[in-house]
Amino acid sequence: MSLRALSVVSEAYPLVKTGGLADVAGALPAALKPYDVAVTTLLPGYNKVMKALSRGEVLHQYRDLLGAEARLIAGTAGGLDVIVLDAPEFYARDGGPYLDPTTGKDWPDNWMRYGALGRAAADLAEGKAGDGSFDLVHGHDWQGALAPAYLRYDGSSVPSIITIHNIAFPGWFAPETFSHLGLPQRAYSIEGVEYFGGVGFLKAGLHTADAITTVSPTYAEEIRTKEFGMGLEGLIRARGDRVFGIVNGIDTNVWNPASDPNLVQQYDARTLHLRRQNRQAVEKAFGLSDGFGPIFCVISRLTTQKGMDVLASLTDDLVAMGGRLALLGSGDTKLETAFIAASNKHRGKIGVTIGYDEALSHLLQGGADAILIPSRFEPCGLTQLYGLRYGCIPVAANTGGLADTIIDANEAAVNAGVATGFLFHGVTRESLTGAIAHTIARYANRKVWKSLQEQGMRADYSWARSGRQYADLYRRFAKAGSTQAAVSTI
Question: Where along the chain is ADP-alpha-D-glucose bound (predicted)?
């Protein structure tokens, strides 16, 4: 029997994307389809989403949804079955989904914008809007986390799951916002949505959902600790066997070096020599001169979480060791400035493009030799999976999903022919410099390097396994629906 799930998320590829969350949300429906799970994605009605929406059918109209008029419109967009929350007052804005482009800061009414999304999700599942035939609601990150809370406090029997893509973004808002969310007063407590003196959207979802997932088994363990739990580690530990780690997959149709239109030359594991043409294209795009050492690439937000401050401090060393760097990213202004300064100092050795370009990110994976991922924490990470798929060797911190998806090129793994990348412990100048030096040394041995590329490219990082795990989890909790809802600590 087919199971219907409502995915509640703030972004989904190819409609709107700021990071890996969009890739996961965009790929999950197709990953679940083979297991007889039909996913409808509930999205905010951003300008881009409204333009892409086709065959729209109005399911419901709100006169006052957390202070705004709104409609729920069902249709298709970007190859996804969607329901769009069309609320122009909330979403018809220029710029990205979360930030005011004029100030660079969060929209001050984000609590209303994504509170409304959660309320609409619960209404759909409960039959107050639309046909009410969803068997389960799946909220993503803090933006979708109020959906489980509304369901639970409404007394609904519809089960829910919340996925933590990054616990570092808890969705905290001032305490005065609570009275406008339409939740009962009892919800504002330490055993409810209260979080460090305010309202915690993610905490609300973690407390009320029937199950919690996060995007790798190692991260599921890490967030139980004070170092990684962001003040929510006690709640995570208390949920015990309701917490699951499922590694993200990637869309192997979109990310396929044998057919990728963004590459100068397509190739596969048997024709790795063809990558040279893409390498030359990377050199041209980033103004890099010829060299015998590897081209390291970075495709990342430029933040301290991603370890970019450490990398910025050792660009002189990277060049001195014979490496070159091609960086694509944006973020902290000081880090942007530091990398631009490094590129000016080391012309022909370091090239920097500030911003994000999807096609260029594909070319980097298809032409650079290695990708640097010195993250202080990384729930799953997708860039290392793209790198493995494209023969762009990941050099990464041993944390979260990076630890779960990369086999370190230690001597035993290299000799056994199973190594796929380089892992280092602790994000420090010394550890990253050592990892870069180790990578350059391995690069000099063409036989070993080719083995690393081939092993990574032959591994299966598609959604097949992860899709089955999600489908099994959906069915487990959908089947137990009313029983799970009755087991409440509220």
Answer: 17
Give residues with Cβ within 8 angstroms of 311, minimum separation 6.
Answer: 298, 372, 374, 432
CATH superfamily of the 272-460 domain: Glycogen Phosphorylase B; (3.40.50.2000)
Rounded to 10 degrees, what is the CA torsion of 289, 294, 299, 303?
Answer: -100
Q: Which residues are annotated as a binding site?
A: 17
For residue range 269-321, what is the model confidence (pLDDT) as tens digits? Answer: 999 999 999 999 999 999 999 888 999 999 999 999 999 999 999 999 999 99
Instruction: Pull the structure tokens for residue 23.
Output: 């890739």
| β-sheet bridge partners, residue 139 | 8, 162
CA 127 to mean position of chain CA atoms: 30
Residues contacting residue 178 through CB under 8 Å, at least 6 positions apart: 187, 188, 193, 199
Binding residues for ADP-alpha-D-glucose: 17
Check: pTM over 0.85? Answer yes or no. Answer: yes
- Assess contact for 375 and 401: CB atoms under 8 A: no
pLDDT digits (tens, 9 = 90+) for 395-410: 999 999 999 999 999 9
203-220 in b/e form (b: 16+ CB < 10 A) is bbbbbbbbbbbbbbbbbb
Q: Which two tokens stand for residue 39?
A: 């996913």
